[in-house]
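tmp note - ATP synthase subunit b, chloroplastic
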Amino acid sequence: MKNITDSFISGEHWSSAGSFEFNTDILATNPINLSVVLGVLIFFGKGVLNDLLDKRKQRILSTIRNSEELRRGAIEQLERARVRLRKVEIEADEYRTNGYSEIEREKVNLINATCNSLERLENYKNETLFFEKQRAINQVRQKVLQQALQKAIGTLNSCLNSELHFRTISANIDILGSVKEITD
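out:
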């Protein structure tokens, strides 16, 4: 350090007593300038730097507190969502179970209704067949009776001559006359 101060005080640089000169030796003056600037900065800037650091510290702490509160809120929301999810899952299981039992009930009801419908249709079919069979039998009977009557009339017409016809009519008239006398 003596060399540095000697360079400022030495006679070479201060040859005339009333003159002022700058020391242009960078290696000799730079560390001194830097130490003076740093000293001034530390002395005067210490308060400002402390204030800036304190404010930054408070912002960081505030951000951490906010983050913690947000985290707690998110955890609470997550727990509420989990509880709701469990409730929804339970309800979904109940709906699924009820839905399956309802489907089974509907299936059984549909099967029963279909069986009843098939039974009614079978009964209607049997009744229709019975009526159609009776109608066919009645039609056959009528045709047979009609043919028998036509055959009997034909046989009677061929067997009866006019004399036999007159005797039959006279006998019938006598029978009717005797019935009339009995009723009077």
